[in-house]
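DM from R.C. (forwarded with permission)

"hey, sorry to bug you on a friday — could you get me a structure for this? deadline for the figure draft is monday and I only need the backbone to look sensible"
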Amino acid sequence: MKRLLLTLLLLAAANASGASSIVLLPLDNVSGDQSAASELPPLLAKAIAAKGWTVVAGDEIETLLETERVRYLDSLDAETRAKVLRKSGATAILTVTVYTWTQGRNPTVALSAHLIGGDGRTLWSNLAAVASSDTERILGLGKKETVKSVAETAVEQLMRGFGTARRGSHSRASAAHYVSGELDPSRPVCVVPFDNSSGSPDAPRILADTLAIRLEAAGFSVIDPAVLRAAALQAHISLHNAGSQELAALARIIGTPLFLRGTIFAFDAAPAIDVEATLVDVSTSKVLWAAQQTRKGTDYTGFLMLGAVSNSVALTDRVATELIATARTNHAHKHPPGDRTAVAADRRRQLHAGEGQR
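My reply, with the result:
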Protein backbone atom coordinates (compact mmCIF):
# COMPACT_ATOMS: atom_id res chain seq x y z
CA MET A 1 0.00 0.00 0.00
CA LYS A 2 2.86 2.41 0.84
CA ARG A 3 4.50 1.59 -2.48
CA LEU A 4 1.28 2.28 -4.39
CA LEU A 5 0.73 5.58 -2.53
CA LEU A 6 4.29 6.74 -3.22
CA THR A 7 3.97 5.93 -6.93
CA LEU A 8 0.70 7.83 -7.20
CA LEU A 9 2.14 10.84 -5.36
CA LEU A 10 5.22 10.95 -7.57
CA LEU A 11 3.18 10.74 -10.77
CA ALA A 12 0.64 13.28 -9.51
CA ALA A 13 3.42 15.68 -8.57
CA ALA A 14 4.96 15.38 -12.03
CA ASN A 15 1.64 16.12 -13.71
CA ALA A 16 0.80 18.96 -11.30
CA SER A 17 4.10 20.66 -12.07
CA GLY A 18 3.23 20.73 -15.78
CA ALA A 19 6.29 18.62 -16.60
CA SER A 20 4.28 15.58 -17.61
CA SER A 21 6.63 14.23 -20.27
CA ILE A 22 8.28 10.84 -20.60
CA VAL A 23 11.33 9.83 -22.61
CA LEU A 24 10.64 6.69 -24.61
CA LEU A 25 14.03 5.04 -25.08
CA PRO A 26 14.78 3.02 -28.23
CA LEU A 27 13.55 -0.54 -27.77
CA ASP A 28 15.79 -3.14 -26.17
CA ASN A 29 14.90 -5.62 -28.90
CA VAL A 30 16.07 -9.16 -28.19
CA SER A 31 13.43 -10.77 -30.39
CA GLY A 32 15.62 -10.94 -33.48
CA ASP A 33 12.97 -9.29 -35.68
CA GLN A 34 13.81 -5.69 -36.54
CA SER A 35 10.27 -4.84 -37.64
CA ALA A 36 9.37 -4.56 -33.95
CA ALA A 37 11.52 -1.40 -33.77
CA SER A 38 9.29 0.37 -36.29
CA GLU A 39 5.89 -1.08 -35.36
CA LEU A 40 5.92 -0.85 -31.55
CA PRO A 41 7.04 2.74 -30.70
CA PRO A 42 3.99 4.41 -32.32
CA LEU A 43 1.68 2.04 -30.44
CA LEU A 44 3.47 2.75 -27.16
CA ALA A 45 3.49 6.50 -27.75
CA LYS A 46 -0.24 6.49 -28.46
CA ALA A 47 -0.96 4.48 -25.32
CA ILE A 48 1.19 6.78 -23.16
CA ALA A 49 -0.45 9.88 -24.64
CA ALA A 50 -3.86 8.40 -23.84
CA LYS A 51 -2.78 8.42 -20.18
CA GLY A 52 -2.18 12.18 -20.36
CA TRP A 53 1.59 12.23 -20.84
CA THR A 54 3.70 13.78 -23.58
CA VAL A 55 6.17 11.39 -25.21
CA VAL A 56 9.72 12.53 -25.96
CA ALA A 57 11.72 10.48 -28.45
CA GLY A 58 13.81 10.97 -31.56
CA ASP A 59 17.25 11.44 -33.01
CA GLU A 60 18.57 13.71 -30.23
CA ILE A 61 18.00 11.05 -27.58
CA GLU A 62 19.51 8.33 -29.77
CA THR A 63 22.54 10.55 -30.51
CA LEU A 64 23.03 11.15 -26.79
CA LEU A 65 22.89 7.42 -26.08
CA GLU A 66 25.45 6.79 -28.82
CA THR A 67 27.71 9.53 -27.46
CA GLU A 68 27.52 8.01 -23.99
CA ARG A 69 28.23 4.58 -25.53
CA VAL A 70 25.20 3.04 -23.86
CA ARG A 71 25.31 -0.73 -24.37
CA TYR A 72 22.18 -1.72 -22.47
CA LEU A 73 18.79 -0.13 -23.08
CA ASP A 74 16.86 -1.95 -20.34
CA SER A 75 18.22 0.46 -17.68
CA LEU A 76 20.58 3.43 -17.50
CA ASP A 77 23.27 4.38 -14.99
CA ALA A 78 22.63 7.49 -12.87
CA GLU A 79 24.85 9.82 -14.93
CA THR A 80 23.34 8.86 -18.29
CA ARG A 81 19.82 8.97 -16.85
CA ALA A 82 20.40 12.52 -15.61
CA LYS A 83 21.77 13.62 -19.01
CA VAL A 84 18.79 12.14 -20.86
CA LEU A 85 16.29 13.86 -18.58
CA ARG A 86 18.17 17.16 -18.73
CA LYS A 87 18.40 17.00 -22.53
CA SER A 88 14.73 16.15 -22.96
CA GLY A 89 13.25 18.19 -20.12
CA ALA A 90 11.21 15.12 -19.16
CA THR A 91 10.45 13.81 -15.69
CA ALA A 92 10.74 10.07 -16.29
CA ILE A 93 12.17 7.48 -18.68
CA LEU A 94 10.31 4.52 -20.13
CA THR A 95 12.41 1.50 -21.08
CA VAL A 96 10.84 -1.26 -23.15
CA THR A 97 12.26 -4.74 -23.82
CA VAL A 98 10.85 -6.89 -26.62
CA TYR A 99 11.35 -10.61 -26.01
CA THR A 100 9.17 -12.05 -28.77
CA TRP A 101 7.97 -10.66 -32.09
CA THR A 102 7.05 -13.55 -34.34
CA GLN A 103 4.86 -13.66 -37.40
CA GLY A 104 3.51 -16.73 -39.18
CA ARG A 105 0.53 -18.91 -38.24
CA ASN A 106 0.38 -17.82 -34.61
CA PRO A 107 1.82 -14.27 -34.34
CA THR A 108 3.17 -13.60 -30.86
CA VAL A 109 4.35 -10.45 -29.07
CA ALA A 110 5.96 -10.36 -25.61
CA LEU A 111 7.42 -7.25 -23.99
CA SER A 112 8.09 -5.57 -20.66
CA ALA A 113 8.36 -1.92 -19.63
CA HIS A 114 9.77 0.09 -16.73
CA LEU A 115 9.02 3.73 -15.88
CA ILE A 116 12.06 5.19 -14.12
CA GLY A 117 12.06 8.48 -12.23
CA GLY A 118 14.90 10.97 -12.06
CA ASP A 119 16.19 9.44 -8.83
CA GLY A 120 16.34 5.96 -10.36
CA ARG A 121 13.22 4.78 -8.57
CA THR A 122 10.94 2.42 -10.50
CA LEU A 123 7.60 4.21 -10.67
CA TRP A 124 5.83 1.44 -12.57
CA SER A 125 6.64 -1.77 -14.41
CA ASN A 126 4.72 -4.50 -16.16
CA LEU A 127 4.97 -7.37 -18.63
CA ALA A 128 2.60 -8.62 -21.34
CA ALA A 129 2.74 -11.59 -23.69
CA VAL A 130 0.02 -12.24 -26.26
CA ALA A 131 -0.29 -14.79 -29.06
CA SER A 132 -2.88 -14.77 -31.82
CA SER A 133 -4.44 -17.88 -30.30
CA ASP A 134 -4.90 -15.99 -27.00
CA THR A 135 -7.23 -13.51 -28.69
CA GLU A 136 -9.61 -16.16 -29.99
CA ARG A 137 -12.99 -16.23 -28.31
CA ILE A 138 -15.66 -18.92 -28.35
CA LEU A 139 -16.35 -20.29 -31.84
CA GLY A 140 -13.15 -18.68 -33.12
CA LEU A 141 -14.54 -15.12 -33.06
CA GLY A 142 -12.36 -12.03 -32.65
CA LYS A 143 -9.02 -13.68 -33.35
CA LYS A 144 -6.15 -11.31 -34.21
CA GLU A 145 -4.46 -12.58 -37.37
CA THR A 146 -1.45 -10.27 -37.83
CA VAL A 147 1.54 -9.51 -35.60
CA LYS A 148 0.62 -5.79 -35.59
CA SER A 149 -2.92 -6.45 -34.36
CA VAL A 150 -1.53 -8.81 -31.71
CA ALA A 151 0.95 -6.07 -30.74
CA GLU A 152 -1.94 -3.65 -30.25
CA THR A 153 -3.52 -6.07 -27.78
CA ALA A 154 -0.16 -6.66 -26.03
CA VAL A 155 0.43 -2.91 -25.61
CA GLU A 156 -3.12 -2.47 -24.31
CA GLN A 157 -2.52 -5.17 -21.69
CA LEU A 158 0.91 -3.77 -20.84
CA MET A 159 -0.39 -0.25 -20.22
CA ARG A 160 -3.54 -1.10 -18.24
CA GLY A 161 -1.77 -0.49 -14.95
CA PHE A 162 0.37 2.43 -16.16
CA GLY A 163 0.85 4.95 -13.39
CA THR A 164 -0.09 2.55 -10.62
CA ALA A 165 1.72 -0.25 -8.83
CA ARG A 166 0.34 -3.48 -10.27
CA ARG A 167 -0.05 -6.66 -8.32
CA GLY A 168 0.79 -9.93 -9.96
CA SER A 169 -1.95 -12.03 -11.48
CA HIS A 170 -3.81 -14.51 -9.30
CA SER A 171 -1.90 -17.70 -8.58
CA ARG A 172 -3.88 -20.84 -9.29
CA ALA A 173 -1.71 -22.99 -7.04
CA SER A 174 1.32 -22.63 -4.79
CA ALA A 175 4.77 -23.91 -5.64
CA ALA A 176 6.77 -26.16 -3.33
CA HIS A 177 8.71 -23.77 -1.11
CA TYR A 178 10.53 -22.80 2.08
CA VAL A 179 10.26 -19.37 3.73
CA SER A 180 12.43 -18.13 6.60
CA GLY A 181 10.92 -16.02 9.34
CA GLU A 182 13.81 -13.60 8.70
CA LEU A 183 12.61 -12.76 5.18
CA ASP A 184 12.05 -9.00 5.02
CA PRO A 185 10.57 -7.70 1.72
CA SER A 186 11.83 -4.17 2.48
CA ARG A 187 15.48 -5.24 2.09
CA PRO A 188 16.76 -4.73 -1.47
CA VAL A 189 17.23 -7.86 -3.59
CA CYS A 190 19.66 -8.47 -6.47
CA VAL A 191 18.35 -10.81 -9.19
CA VAL A 192 21.34 -12.51 -10.86
CA PRO A 193 21.22 -14.69 -13.99
CA PHE A 194 19.95 -18.19 -13.26
CA ASP A 195 21.94 -21.26 -14.24
CA ASN A 196 20.49 -22.43 -17.52
CA SER A 197 20.12 -26.15 -18.29
CA SER A 198 17.16 -25.63 -20.61
CA GLY A 199 18.95 -25.14 -23.91
CA SER A 200 17.12 -21.84 -24.48
CA PRO A 201 19.65 -18.96 -24.47
CA ASP A 202 16.93 -16.36 -23.81
CA ALA A 203 15.55 -18.08 -20.71
CA PRO A 204 17.77 -16.41 -18.03
CA ARG A 205 17.07 -12.90 -19.33
CA ILE A 206 13.30 -13.43 -19.62
CA LEU A 207 13.07 -15.03 -16.17
CA ALA A 208 15.23 -12.39 -14.46
CA ASP A 209 13.25 -9.51 -15.95
CA THR A 210 9.92 -11.12 -15.09
CA LEU A 211 10.94 -11.94 -11.52
CA ALA A 212 12.14 -8.37 -10.98
CA ILE A 213 8.85 -6.91 -12.26
CA ARG A 214 6.67 -9.23 -10.18
CA LEU A 215 8.85 -8.88 -7.06
CA GLU A 216 8.39 -5.11 -7.20
CA ALA A 217 4.65 -5.56 -7.75
CA ALA A 218 4.57 -7.77 -4.64
CA GLY A 219 6.23 -5.07 -2.52
CA PHE A 220 9.88 -6.13 -2.69
CA SER A 221 12.71 -3.70 -3.42
CA VAL A 222 14.83 -4.81 -6.42
CA ILE A 223 18.27 -3.47 -7.35
CA ASP A 224 18.33 -1.92 -10.81
CA PRO A 225 20.21 -3.99 -13.44
CA ALA A 226 22.47 -1.03 -14.30
CA VAL A 227 23.62 -0.84 -10.66
CA LEU A 228 24.28 -4.58 -10.56
CA ARG A 229 26.22 -4.52 -13.84
CA ALA A 230 28.31 -1.53 -12.71
CA ALA A 231 29.21 -3.30 -9.46
CA ALA A 232 30.16 -6.47 -11.32
CA LEU A 233 32.36 -4.46 -13.68
CA GLN A 234 34.03 -2.67 -10.78
CA ALA A 235 34.73 -5.97 -9.02
CA HIS A 236 35.76 -7.77 -12.25
CA ILE A 237 33.09 -10.41 -11.65
CA SER A 238 30.99 -12.30 -14.19
CA LEU A 239 27.37 -12.40 -13.03
CA HIS A 240 26.89 -15.69 -14.89
CA ASN A 241 29.60 -17.49 -12.90
CA ALA A 242 29.51 -15.75 -9.53
CA GLY A 243 30.06 -17.93 -6.48
CA SER A 244 29.55 -17.12 -2.80
CA GLN A 245 32.77 -15.11 -2.47
CA GLU A 246 32.04 -13.08 -5.61
CA LEU A 247 28.49 -12.32 -4.43
CA ALA A 248 29.84 -11.23 -1.05
CA ALA A 249 32.15 -8.81 -2.85
CA LEU A 250 29.22 -7.47 -4.87
CA ALA A 251 27.18 -7.10 -1.68
CA ARG A 252 29.78 -4.76 -0.20
CA ILE A 253 29.69 -2.55 -3.30
CA ILE A 254 25.90 -2.54 -3.80
CA GLY A 255 24.93 -2.34 -0.15
CA THR A 256 22.67 -5.38 0.11
CA PRO A 257 23.56 -9.03 0.82
CA LEU A 258 20.39 -10.53 -0.69
CA PHE A 259 20.79 -12.36 -4.00
CA LEU A 260 18.10 -14.28 -5.86
CA ARG A 261 19.48 -17.03 -8.07
CA GLY A 262 18.53 -20.54 -9.16
CA THR A 263 18.38 -23.01 -12.03
CA ILE A 264 16.21 -23.25 -15.13
CA PHE A 265 15.82 -26.94 -15.92
CA ALA A 266 13.35 -26.57 -18.79
CA PHE A 267 12.16 -23.64 -20.88
CA ASP A 268 10.34 -24.97 -23.92
CA ALA A 269 8.38 -23.23 -26.65
CA ALA A 270 5.48 -25.69 -26.14
CA PRO A 271 5.45 -23.92 -23.58
CA ALA A 272 6.78 -25.63 -20.45
CA ILE A 273 8.96 -24.36 -17.59
CA ASP A 274 10.79 -26.08 -14.74
CA VAL A 275 12.64 -23.74 -12.40
CA GLU A 276 13.92 -23.43 -8.87
CA ALA A 277 14.80 -20.14 -7.15
CA THR A 278 16.71 -19.41 -3.94
CA LEU A 279 17.09 -16.11 -2.08
CA VAL A 280 20.32 -16.11 -0.05
CA ASP A 281 21.76 -13.65 2.46
CA VAL A 282 25.44 -13.93 1.50
CA SER A 283 26.53 -12.14 4.69
CA THR A 284 25.20 -15.00 6.83
CA SER A 285 24.95 -17.79 4.18
CA LYS A 286 21.30 -18.24 5.17
CA VAL A 287 18.56 -19.25 2.76
CA LEU A 288 15.66 -16.84 3.28
CA TRP A 289 13.34 -18.23 0.64
CA ALA A 290 13.38 -21.12 -1.82
CA ALA A 291 10.75 -22.30 -4.27
CA GLN A 292 10.35 -24.73 -7.17
CA GLN A 293 7.74 -24.81 -9.90
CA THR A 294 7.02 -26.91 -12.98
CA ARG A 295 4.31 -25.76 -15.35
CA LYS A 296 2.99 -26.39 -18.84
CA GLY A 297 0.82 -23.96 -20.76
CA THR A 298 -1.99 -26.50 -20.75
CA ASP A 299 -2.09 -26.40 -16.93
CA TYR A 300 -4.28 -23.31 -17.23
CA THR A 301 -6.83 -24.73 -19.66
CA GLY A 302 -10.35 -23.99 -18.49
CA PHE A 303 -13.92 -23.97 -19.77
CA LEU A 304 -14.32 -25.04 -23.42
CA MET A 305 -10.55 -25.66 -23.55
CA LEU A 306 -9.89 -21.90 -23.41
CA GLY A 307 -7.30 -20.16 -21.23
CA ALA A 308 -4.23 -22.29 -21.97
CA VAL A 309 -1.00 -20.26 -21.97
CA SER A 310 0.39 -20.42 -25.49
CA ASN A 311 3.84 -18.78 -25.24
CA SER A 312 6.86 -19.08 -22.99
CA VAL A 313 6.95 -15.45 -21.82
CA ALA A 314 3.33 -15.52 -20.64
CA LEU A 315 4.01 -18.82 -18.87
CA THR A 316 7.11 -17.32 -17.25
CA ASP A 317 4.92 -14.52 -15.91
CA ARG A 318 2.48 -17.05 -14.41
CA VAL A 319 5.29 -19.11 -12.88
CA ALA A 320 7.10 -16.05 -11.48
CA THR A 321 3.88 -14.85 -9.87
CA GLU A 322 3.24 -18.28 -8.33
CA LEU A 323 6.81 -18.51 -7.04
CA ILE A 324 6.70 -15.06 -5.44
CA ALA A 325 3.31 -15.77 -3.89
CA THR A 326 4.99 -18.42 -1.76
CA ALA A 327 7.19 -15.76 -0.14
CA ARG A 328 4.04 -14.07 1.17
CA THR A 329 2.25 -17.13 2.55
CA ASN A 330 1.68 -18.20 6.15
CA HIS A 331 4.88 -19.77 7.47
CA ALA A 332 3.26 -22.26 9.81
CA HIS A 333 4.28 -25.35 7.85
CA LYS A 334 7.68 -24.38 6.47
CA HIS A 335 10.35 -26.97 5.75
CA PRO A 336 13.77 -26.42 7.36
CA PRO A 337 16.44 -24.86 5.14
CA GLY A 338 18.20 -27.33 2.88
CA ASP A 339 15.52 -30.02 3.30
CA ARG A 340 15.32 -30.71 -0.43
CA THR A 341 13.72 -34.11 0.17
CA ALA A 342 10.75 -32.49 1.88
CA VAL A 343 10.57 -29.74 -0.73
CA ALA A 344 10.65 -32.29 -3.54
CA ALA A 345 7.92 -34.35 -1.86
CA ASP A 346 5.81 -31.21 -1.46
CA ARG A 347 6.46 -30.43 -5.12
CA ARG A 348 5.25 -33.89 -6.20
CA ARG A 349 2.10 -33.48 -4.12
CA GLN A 350 1.49 -30.10 -5.76
CA LEU A 351 1.92 -31.50 -9.25
CA HIS A 352 -0.38 -34.42 -8.43
CA ALA A 353 -2.98 -31.99 -7.12
CA GLY A 354 -2.67 -29.94 -10.29
CA GLU A 355 -3.34 -33.02 -12.40
CA GLY A 356 -6.40 -33.77 -10.31
CA GLN A 357 -7.74 -30.26 -10.82
CA ARG A 358 -7.39 -30.65 -14.54
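R.C.: lifesaver. The two ends are 35 Å apart (CA to CA).
me: no worries. Residues 1-19, 164-173, 330-358 have pLDDT under 50 and may be disordered.
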